[in-house]
Specification:
single chain, 11% strand, 205 residues, Thioredoxin-like fold domain-containing protein, Thioredoxin-like_sf, globular, alpha+beta, 5-stranded mixed beta sheet
Length: 205
């Protein structure tokens, strides 16, 4: 599936030129997404990277899925996109770190904090992954600048991801597409066996 150049770090496993594509739509503040993310990291990433059974055959794309009924969803996805800009190789490690601490960004914990306070907390998390030398650049990307309603430096990337989801009728997380079609059989409960069986049945190259 298509991916604009600035979002190339969202290919978390496999070659960008691999013929098969798994598009996995995840929200950082969705518990089911967190469960799937851990399975992806332990099963799909090793299988699809160079040297894996499906290396060169399957690529895995993380598709940010903002779910607006969670007030912090926009903020955490902005953070992920900012890491993709300043430290592309650290995008997936940051995503995993955020998933592991997702409960800190749930509705009730963030209900008494301002967006600036949430962004400050995300900056500290990002610093733990990308290092202090890049933390200021990360923070700068999230700073609101320009017109009073103009967003920040990753707003256009965020808009792209939202438009992509909408045009493909993806409304909830997690949702998975195999070669452009929704694979309804895939579940957040899947482990190693289910993913391996799926790839064995689907990979045709």
């Amino acid at each position: 599936m298509a991916l604009q150049p600035s979002l190339r770090p969202l290919v978390i496993a496999g070659s960008a030129h691999a013929p098969h594509t798994l598009d996995i739509f995840l929200d950082y503040v969705c518990p089911f997404s967190a469960k799937m993310a851990l399975a992806i990291d332990s099963v799909l990433v090793p299988l699809c990277t160079d040297g894996g059974k499906y290396g060169g055959k399957v690529k895995v794309i993380f598709r940010p899925q903002v779910q607006p009924w969670h007030a912090s969803s926009t903020l955490v996805h902005e953070a992920g996109l900012a890491v993709a800009r300043v430290a592309p190789q650290q995008f997936w490690p940051f995503a995993l770190a955020l998933f592991k601490q997702q409960d800190e960004y749930f509705d009730i914990p963030t209900s008494t904090t301002t967006p600036l306070e949430v962004r400050s907390k995300l900056t500290k998390l990002a610093e733990s992954v990308i290092g202090s030398s890049l933390a200021n650049e990360f923070k700068d990307l999230l700073e609101l600048k320009g017109s009073p309603n103009g967003g920040n430096a990753v707003t256009d990337d965020l808009k792209y991801t939202i438009k992509y989801s909408r045009q493909n009728s993806v409304h909830v997380s997690p949702t998975v597409l195999w070669d452009g079609l929704v694979a309804n059989e895939i579940s957040s409960s899947w482990g190693e066996k289910e993913w391996k069986d799926f790839l064995t049945a689907k990979v045709a190259v």
